[in-house]
Amino acid sequence: MRVTAREEYCAGCRLCEVYCAVSHSPYPADPVKAFRKSPHPPISRVLVEEQRPVSFALQCRHCTEAICVKACITGAMYRDPVTGAVRNQEERCVGCWTCILVCPFGAIRRDEQGKKVAAKCDLCAGAVEPACVKHCPNGALVVEGKGGGLKCM
Amino acid sequence: MSLSMATPAFLIERNLDRCIHCQVCVRQCANEAHGYDHEEQRVYSDDMRCVNCHRCVVLCPTRALSVRQFPLEFRANANWTAEVIHNIYLQAATGGILLTGMGNDRPYPIYWDHMLINASQVTNPSIDPLREPMELKTFLGRKPEKIVIENGRLKEALPPQLELELPVMFSAMSFGSISLNAMKSLALAAEAEGTYYNTGEGGLHKDLYPLGHRTIVQVASGRFGVHPDYLAAGAAIEIKIGQGAKPGIGGHLPGEKVGREVSETRMIPEGTDALSPAPHHDIYSIEDLRQLIYSLKEATNYSKPVSVKIAAVHNVAAIASGIARAGADIIAIDGYRGGTGATPLRTRDHVGIPIEFALAAVDSRLRDEGIRNQVSLVVAGSIRHSADIVKAVALGADAVYIGSAALIALGCHMCQKCYTGKCNWGIATQDPNLTKRLNPEIGAKRAANLLKAWKHEIKEMLGGMGINALESLRGNRLMLRGIGLTDRELNILGIKAAGE
Fold this sequence. Notes:
The structure holds two protein chains of two kinds. Chain A contains five helices and eight strands; from the N terminus they run βααββαββαββαβ. Chain A is an alpha+beta fold. In chain A, the strands form four sheets. A two-stranded antiparallel sheet of chain A has the order 1-8. A two-stranded antiparallel sheet of chain A has the order 2-3. A two-stranded antiparallel ribbon of chain A has the order 4-5.
């Protein structure tokens, strides 16, 4: 399962980034507090790539054979055997950025607000619909079904 | 360069307690009314550029934005209003004609709101549309003088008809004036709900040919995009003589909007202005019109109804009679409140007559002359809701066209800036950055929902009158009563006053 962008309908508003950041903040239901309670704005795990008029939201492709998992020096990065989502156990992550170096999509970001960790899309674990998909005003993000994942190795 | 007299029309109010400086507003405003100050790391607004389209307000994730009229006032003057003064400043600065978009917004009386619908009580039962069948099906086209039945079937074939599941079609809006995504939205909605949309004078984009059977193809004075495949693709052909927002005036699509796709569809060079002449240069009389009607019928083997669209003007009844006699199957009449992508302000606001009067006058005239069966009447020009439709049908319309209402369903916020080509909702624009804001799947769903909702409401009102088929309401002016109208107005509308 992963989130796919429909480039032709991406309005470039970046609400996906806003809501991703909010939903991964200590105040997932309150955008105002999520942005204002911390000295740094919360980090989005989805990034809108833009060269107008082309724009699309890019986040982790949740590769079936993920090089970030293989490259992780502590075993923090793992592929959930049930959901197929590639996730980072932040308590094990040491912030070496090897995953960022190897990811061919540039879908992993640095989070240095607390302990240095790699921040990436976790498909909003537990949510019915990822925040970016739910809040896209133009249906430009869709959840793709299970299986058929990419092999980036 | 002298002093500019321009002052902002709108005031952008940003609640700084709620703004998170996420810049969604900055990225969404094609007019650049919002900006981001990197040094201060904050979002700021420029009231001067705001057109009050609500794009930023609707997309703001923290509801931090609001827009209202700019509070600056002139010394109170009921004659020299702020609008009049501002328009003079603008014309003094530019020397140009004032342009605007959408329909007449002047406070003229709205006659729909002076008509009330009947309902059954005791003496005849009302009908519950949720429990009993209710028929809204509408056929548009010439009806025969008489029908001959042989062995339980019609002996002679009916003239070609358009079959509508509800008496509502989408008005003519061209590719050029609106985006391809907007056209696709309307085409898909028409397909889903069993009605038709109209190409306007912009030709039929190649992507829309598969939905040709839901398309009314227009032939207007510029003859843009008219070729044999185009005529063959449509379900009906409409000759556009005029439109309510600019009676007597042609069209002008500026060259900036004529990109590759528009150029291909209209069959004109890229970047050239698309000028539609005010008249059809081959139509100077009813006889000339008859020639074009029959040329188009001949070209399509008499397989499609031909409609003629005119603006509601003073002698509309006599003109409509001529059009019926010229061989049209459908007459579309567009009232003075009809919308448009661009029109001279003074024409929009001061030329034409209300569609309610035009409809009543035309229907009465055609009945008096015994030719009402020869044509179907479609009315347009600010049909705002289902009650307007019920009233229009009771006054004598066969169906209505909706343009503004359909665009509002797609997201239009009536800022009246269609002519700038910077529609922030991706509707009245050809800018690829903006057109992609309208996802036709979502647009089609919303436009279809509007038709569905209105269908339910029309059925409710019909049921209330104890009528189970729209056909029984058509021209049934006894179902209407006037309120707040003079005797003369009641007389023209052909209805009684409330209480009579």
